[in-house]
Amino acid sequence: MEEYRRLYYNSMCNQSKFGYLDSWQFLATASHSLSFILIPLSFYGSYCIIFKTPYKMRRVKWIMLNLHVWTGILDVMLTTLITPYFFFPAACGFPVGILAVFKVNVKLQIFMGQCCCGGLFSSLLLLFENRHNSLVTSKFRIPNNTFRIIYFFFVYLYGFGLMFPAYLNEPNQIEAKLTILRTILPCPTTEFFDSPVYVLILDTNYVVFPIILYIFIMGIQLIFFVVHSFFYLFCISSKMSNRTKDLQKKFLIGVCIQVAIPIGVLLVPVIYCVCSILLGYYNQAMLNIAVLFISLHGMSATIVLIYINEPYRTFTIRLFRKTDHSTANNSTQGRRFATTFTTEKTIVF
């Protein structure tokens, strides 16, 4: 490594092109700063779901909370605990979060991050299956709770074990880093030499294609639950009253919007990272920004959750109005006190 740096990197690579945005310090500072907004907002969203969900939504309450908790955990992992500094298109990097400070094994951190992603997508599927099961009465639904538990056990297990083939092919770290420098990434940032970079796998096919397959399999199921639910509500006659059906339509559309916007925020940086690997394109600043954008997924999810669901939105508006009212009262009392004090002062003097 040092020989490569001395003989090739220092003379052939333009290190001046890397700025603050390319550094791990930028990623760590920006991510940790975001956590001061994201974490309280996530807790507030959880509070709304637990305490402000109306009784009529009781069947979906804990399903929504499950999804929200997984979203919050992923946010905490990205902004605080792990905060990965990637070197895509090579499947390597190093963490700059709190767990790195406590010397937690990097491989374990990768597994934790992967479990968070798997848990998030599995919870998303669980939400729409719940809606589908509540609406559809035909044979195209999961028949009982026992089968549902087994089904989602394997769904979550698949998400947690997604990267298992890559873990089985862990390369020799020194040789792998030299191979990356010679074939994939000849001129990375200096962090590649100065930091404890971990190479997950040399053949990125072990990472990219399992992820693509996972997204495809989960996407097919998700599309089925969503499309069939809409088809059942809009195209098939049922025993539901018109009022109930209208409420179900409104709620299902709201759930779709609630999910679509955060997923859109998440997909943009994820697609960039995948394309970076497939096309062999390296831009460290863009990678850092992509990680930050992935972190914003949770914030957008909470904001949309509060805005779309009327009970949460109403509670939040009342909370702000109450705060403004209290501030106004305190201000009025302060002015009265000042007037009284001034009057008394005038009388005394």
Automatic annotation (TrEMBL):
The protein's name is Serpentine Receptor, class H
Keyword check for Transit peptide:
no
Indicate the transmembrane segments per the record. Answer: 26-50, 62-88, 108-128, 149-168, 211-234, 255-279, 285-308
Pfam families recorded: 7TM_GPCR_Srh
Database matches in InterPro entries: 7TM_GPCR_serpentine_rcpt_Srh (IPR019422), Nematode_rcpt-like_serp_H (IPR053220)
Q: Which keywords appear in this protein's UniProt record, sorted alphabetically? A: Membrane, Transmembrane, Transmembrane helix
Species in which this protein is naturally found: Caenorhabditis angaria
Signal peptide feature range: none
